[in-house]
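Before relying on records like the one below, remember that each one covers exactly one chain. Contacts with other chains, cofactors or solvent are not represented anywhere in the record.
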Amino acid sequence: MITNVLEYLEASAAKYPDKTAFADLDSACTFEELRQRARRLGTALAEHFLPGNPVPVFMEKSVDTIGVFMGAVYAGCFYVMLDTKQPAARIQQILEILDSDVIVTSQKYEKDLEKLEFRGKVLFTEELDQGAEDSFVLDRIRAQAVDTDPLYGIFTSGSTGVPKGVVVGHRSVIDFIDCFIELFHITSEDVMGNQAPWDFDVSVKDIYSGLKTGATVQIIPKQYFSIPKNLLDFLVDREVTTIVWAVSAMCIISTLNGFTYKVPDKIKKVLFSGEVMPIKHLNIWRKYLSDTMFVNIYGPTEITCNCTYYVVDREFQPGDVLPMGRAFPNEKVFLLDEEDHLVTEKGVNGEICVAGSALALGYYRNPEQTRKAFVQNPLNNRYLEPIYRTGDLAFYNERGELCFATRKDFQIKHMGHRIELGEIETAMDKIPEIRRSLCIYDQPKNKIVAFYEGEIDRKTLSRSLVKYVPNFMVPNVFVQVETMPLTKNGKIDRKELTARYQEGR
């Protein structure tokens, strides 16, 4: 039985020692080179960190960074990626939560580090890499390791304005990745095209699918996602076969007609998540990559990447609801209503709840928020069964497939009616001129506000919407935007749009 993700790395290094494990624009490493470097770094890090503690990694995603991640794991610790491009204030908040007086970085990020005003000890990878591995130290650490030890920490936005550090253990990742690669047939022949930032859990699927199977992970430069030609050239040149991307990243190519320039026809698996995929964009991808498997995957960071998946097996039209599908193996996914009763009827919304070994270990140094989010299953009063309440609403369609509805907090009361803002967005997707849309609610003025990309005037849009939704669901305000602002994780930035509206209203 595998109990530590380092077994993935060690097995692939033994089987494919000279095969490229990770590559970026400037460098690459084989599986054996990664193993050796990780052991050197692990030995050095063990002098500064006790097992079970976080290792703050202040870097950008790169071949260098993956070595630090694995080094932290060899040291018996868990890594926390701190992207250098994040606002200094947020990183400072995270460092305060981590309560670490040591940070790991590279000399190339010294100027970025100065902005943090960090007063603790700084460890540079260039210096850590100079030492030799100490097998005695590493073996001693490994002998004490168990599968519930933390592996990584990822900070998500907190409702109070303070980030929450989701800590995920080895067992959760192992159970998920083993299912993931089997379901989607990921093998050593695959080349993963990594889009996701490494402080975002979508990247976990790229990193550990590669380590588990011996697949190569090609790290795509962030700037290429604003230059479709460069992005498509990269996918073709690096012979990428599998992408696990945010919906917004895919929409960049389809919005800008990237496939008329070049089709990366070696891609055979496309998995997407983060937001509801607009059908018109999905259909463009399916048109040009007709022999490719497309998979809609869903899940918050707190349940280790994803808990449901749907392999697209039929045609969909704009306005159709793309299913979330079914639960991953060894994960229990069910719906609860507002009275905590199980929802089984078709077409009835309930909150998505998840149970199983995929659940995170909780929020780092935040027992209060941990208790709120990870609760006892209200359907079980016989033994301990923690579940995670996602805050997302879903329903079962006529085929019995799970379908996303909206966020609980995106459900509004307007003109005496309970309205799901997501339903309005789905209706807007049916209008050919609309590329993307997002709705918010101005509660003080009792107005539904719709932001949209597309060449259509507000009056025509309003008249078109009446064909699909009742009058009381037609937005009161329409705001045309050239492009939707995106969060670092590739989702439409709701906060930014709300701020723009509030400034201009």
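The two ends are 59 Å apart (CA to CA).
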